[in-house]
Amino acid sequence: MTLLPRPRHRPTRALAASITAALALTTLVACGESAADDRADENPHYTTEPSDTFPVTVEHEYGETTIESEPQRIVSVGLTEQDVLLELGVTPIATTEWYGEHDFAVWPWATDLLNGAEPEVLSAADGFQYERIAELEPDLIIGTNAGMTEDAYDRLSEIAPTVTATDGSEGYASPWRDQTRQIAAAVGRSAEGEELIAGVEEAYAAVAAEHPEFAGKTATFAQGVIWEGVIYVYPDGVNTDFLTDLGFTITPGLEEYAPGAGQQAQISAENVGMLDADVVLFATESPEGVDEVLSFGTMSTLPAVQEGRAIYSDAVLSGAIYFLTPLSQKYVLEHLEPRLVDALAGESPQDVEG
Q1: Looking at the record's lineage, which domain of life comes first (predicted)?
Q2: How many CB atoms lie within 10 A of CB 207?
Q3: Per-residue pLDDT tens for 294-316?
């Protein structure tokens, strides 16, 4: 399946709704508030207790949100927030499908943390599903990686307290540390959120210390799907922490080809030469993806490709890189480290299995 470019550059969705839909939503919200008042049972799939004292107030790009008591019915309307919630021991009642079509929109590195839960799966393909979200009667809506506009925030806040990205975030490019802190604070587990961040930082530091040869080497990270005549490549700071935290330097100049801040560079066939680096990582996802990317322009003649310094990641490793959550980064470290070693040695094979 050909995938659309990852949502680091998705355009803002149209969020206007008809008068009929608005009236229906108002009715659902009223019913949801009544049901929420009567709800006493706790989420049976939680595995931890809050360490913060409620109420808690979380500041974000559209102001601040106060959560009066520990939320039990959390709906995740962003693309990756389920990872953080699950690792904190807080199981959402609904997740949002990004891509991959995994059960419950939960990828393999996080499946065991569902603890038997079977969240509803929402779609963001045509914007937020306001009526369906209201029907779920949430007591907290999380959308730190949702590209949420202020209008969408206002509408979701009519349903339940809503927490979105930090102030200054660009679309889908909110830093993973900020997202982790936002989510952890909203569910009353701020200290645990800091522990998740520290754990990832320590893991990266350990791998970097074990491989001083990574320091200062240049690296390029690109998608493995050609879309409308371009390949999408990640400038420094756009989903590239997994390389720079290991000591690599991202290939310079890519930002000049990005249509906006926090977005991927769009490189046409005649410019693929600028992708060359000490290591080039293609998120090819499948054997067919390897063929597709290498047939684009003069890609097959890049020195990194010719000299065995290009890596072609499979579907799950690619997904873990795109997710860029504390949980997915542990998977990335485990599976990418040996492949980076091989690439710097000029021994990386042209296949997704490594």
Answers
A1: Bacteria
A2: 18
A3: 999 999 999 999 999 999 999 99
Q: How many C-beta neighbours within 10 Å does residue 252 have?
A: 12
Cα–Cα distance for residue pair 188/192, rounded to 1 Å? 9
Residues contacting 269, CB < 8 A, separation 6+: 229, 296, 297, 298
What does pTM read for this prediction? 0.86
Determine contact, residues 56/188, Cβ cutoff 8 Å: yes
Which helix (H) or strand (E) is 195 found in, with range? helix 190-210
pLDDT over 90 percentage in the chain: 82
Burial class (CB in 10 A: 0-12, 13-18, 19+), 311: buried
Segment holding 197, helix H or strand E: helix 190-210
Lowest-pLDDT range, 26-35, 74-83, 201-210, 267-276? 26-35
Q: Which uninterrupted H or E stretch holds 200?
A: helix 190-210
Q: Rounded distance, CA 321 to CA 340, Å?
A: 14
Domains of the chain: 19-189 (3.40.50.1980), 211-344 (3.40.50.1980)
The amino acid at 121: V
* Beta strand spans in the chain (E): 56-60, 63-67, 74-76, 94-97, 120-123, 140-143, 162-164, 218-227, 230-233, 249-250, 265-268, 279-285, 310-314
Separation between Cα atoms, residue 279 and residue 248, nearest integer Å:
9
Between the alpha carbon of residue 18 and those of residues 15, 21, 23, 136, 146, the distances in Å are: 10, 5, 9, 21, 22
Of the CA atoms within 13 Å of residue 328, those in its CB half-sphere come to 24
**Assign residue 230 a region: left if phi > 0, alpha if psi is -120 to 50, beta otherwise?**
beta
